Protein 1
Amino acid sequence: MKKNCSVNVPQERNLYRELLYILFFIGAIVCGCIYSVSMRENDILLFTINQYITVEYDKAEILNLFKNSLITYGLSFIIIFIGGLNKVLLPLSILGFFYTVFSYSFTMTCFLLLYGAKGILVGFLVMGIQAMIIISLLIDVGYQGLQFSLSENVKDIKSYAQNLTKGGVILIVVSTIDSLLQPLMHYLALNII
């Protein structure tokens, strides 16, 4: 009976960790939505977001788009990865994850406020595929970092460090797709609005 009880305790802890991560994810989405709705009267902010959509891309900017995408996505990834290295840095990981999800939620809600129902389609065209891949990657790395930092098993560092390689490859692929498809997606978004 004692053996059965010890098996359930780690499973119960994992369930609480998963629920905690899901709550942060949902909390970030809700906060991003609430913040953008509260900023509805800020014409400068909405003008800036509108400019982001209505400015046309030049083909020469592909390398710049790649660099900016890699820096933006990579910064969030590195913050979450480093935050998962130990318990002391864990809040850094959670804040990095929260900020990234908050940003996507905020931007998507602003598109909805600016363009109505068309804003949902505009948001998915401009950031949809990339956002889903990046958020999925950050959820995976953040959760593994949570597991690693709370397990206090230094021997698993090699396994955890593999996230860095896997994430780097995914970031390069997503940034490449982003830089090549972004001008086309912006063109489609402009035709919708």
Note: Residues 2-192 form one domain.
Protein 2
Amino acid sequence: SLLSYGIVMQESESTYVPDPNKPQIKVTLSHDVSTHSLEYPINSTQTVKWDSSNISEDPEILIQVYKLFPTIPEPTYLDVWSSPMTARLSQKSITFCIDPALFSPDEWYVARVSLATDDKISAISDPFCVK
């Protein structure tokens, strides 16, 4: 199932230890307070939060949400928005609506935050499900 695949992906990420001196971004999602789960109803809002280390100034960042398809050996990511949202690193979060025209129930998604000037400096959230 896609849920178990997402968990496997999470475990593989936790074994990777980045160089603490290199620029890094960390991404988290707001949890549903009532259930503490990563399940969000259509038309609800989702907040993507980020933190960074070893990044000077306040660069522009790009936020994109991808629909996850459990393909083998790696999942396939499809852009949800035609172009990424933009923000400044110092904003620390951005909130968007789970629009029924773009999101489908019982599908899984991830959010990715990257520097606009260097796509390699990026992070992907845990998968979340739309209900």
Note: Strands lie at 24-29, 39-40, 45-53, 60-69, 76-79, 85-88, 93-97, 107-115, 122-124, 128-130.
Protein 3
Amino acid sequence: MPLSGRKSISNIRKAKQHVKNSNHVWNLPGRSGIVFHSVCIVFFVICTIVMIFRIMAYHSYGNLAGQAASVTQIESAQVTVNGETKPCSLPTKLKNLDPGTPVEVTFTLNNASNDTWMQIRTAFAPVTVYENGKKVYELGSKDTRPSFMKDPGTMIQFIQVKEQGEVEITLHYTSPTSRNFLTVSAPLISNQAGLLRYDSQKLEYVMGESFVLLIGGLLLAGISVFIIHLIHEGVILLCIGVFTAITGLWGISNCDLVLFFLNDPSLWYIVSYVCFFSILIPLEMFLEEYVHFHFRKLLQSLHYALCIMVPLTVMLQLTGTVMFSQSVRIYQCLLPASILAFTVGVIWEAARYRSRPAGQMIPGMVILSLSTIAELFNYSGSLEYDSSFYYLFGTGIFCLYMCFVGAVQVRRSYEDRRKAHELERQLTLMNQEIIEQKKYQDMVLSHERQLRRLRHDYRHQITVLQEFARNGETEELSAYLSEMMKAIPQNSDIRYTQNIAVNAVIAYYASQAKKKGVQTDIDLQLAATLSMDMEQSLCVVFGNLLENACEAIDRLDRGDNGAADKGGEQKRFIRLSAVEHQGNLIIHMENSMDGKIRKWGRFYISSKRQEVGIGLSSISNIAEMHGGDAEFHGENGVFVSDVYMELFPEDPQKYELQRDFS
């Protein structure tokens, strides 16, 4: 046994024992460990973000002086519309208004402090604030927004009440041009710190949920881009990530608290509606990619309709023809209807066609549908809609669930693809084995025919030899014997091992390497008789090792920075040895390479397909299946492969169960 082979196998065994010992104490096995750590990380992130937002509510906010005071909400006021004044409770919604209708809201308050501030909130309606008949502030005027926005976005402003004693506040609204109603919010009275604390405590959970969705979606989308480079099914995770990120960004831009981070109502108006219009696109793509519905034409029709509607809606807003606040009515019906239709379709697909992916999606889609219905009731029953807690909460649960399901699906797809490649490779090796065995049999038959012919001519040749000997014609006798020697068939077949199946595979790749001028050194000590399963496994192992070596040498021939000897020429060699030792087969191989090894975690990246390599992974799986292990590394222009496996397992039944499970 080569010394380098013993050393490598020893290192593999030590590393394997070290991993086994460390896993025994700290790590949970397999999928359970992944689920446990994922739940812990998600719980930690959510709690941390919520905690940060709760702490912000008690922050001094820089130049916002003083302790946070209690907040007083103005609950009633005098409302004047078209010259008619009547008392109203706040907040209120004034309906059936013509575009641009002036509306006045008047109330009084007693101010006994020089640090009294008033929070004014308005949505899509400009407002001018008067204090005792004196104009003190104006919100949403035309010069504060782009020309394509007929109405301003949602605005929040802190305005100081400077007058002392009884103060009359008048809010002069101009009703929106894009809708026939005006929502009048209840003004809040406190100091600045108190108002900001009130808003933070009211909206912290919505803002926290939205940030979690946005950050998580962006991270998932970024990771999935790399996964797509390795396997196409990573598109599933990309769609989930984009859907999650868009939902999170929509929740942030739709939350009033965002105006305290960046007070640009027009920007958040655009972001909020564009995200809302786009939410369905990645969700539909995810469902189509994951479930593979039998009624795909309907989904494709919806997909193309959305892809046309969203840019068209943006163009109409950009030209000032139709405001987002008008177009949103279509999407407010389309979004819940589509989600409910998706849920029904998933249930139908699972029940009618026994679709496993559809069955896995049912819990997530039911949660998303219930949260959408709850949000519809919340929206229809609210006078002023300032958060989307139910939908965001349901979407968060849906995305967490689908991330796990999608990751499992990607893993399963990769395993199926790996097994398909492995079966294809085994079929190729079997075909090569059949071809080599046929060549060997043809050669044996040819030798037998020649031997029969020689036996037939044997008596005539003996007679000639006797005649030469009797006459003392030694030169003629020697020449005739030489001709007879040439006529004897020569065995040109190289036998690397006595096992016919394994020898056929090795002979094929060795001949391919020799044709390319590769120096081959093959020394195998292998039993002639092996079990059928072991023969197949060894054919795959040796075939993968030699095929990878030939491909690496092909890259050297293309001039890819190969290893060079002292003369400057590239070394092109394959050295393969195998020996039986105490019931184990120990394989050691070295081959030249171009010096470029790319890995993703513990996987090697194939230079042929630019994805996770199947060959080395197959070798490792076969070695583990036979109670062994494999190790690969490359340095100084040489790739080294060490594999050991049990030729004769002590417990055949245990081995068979392990093989069937794998």
Note: The mean pLDDT is 79.
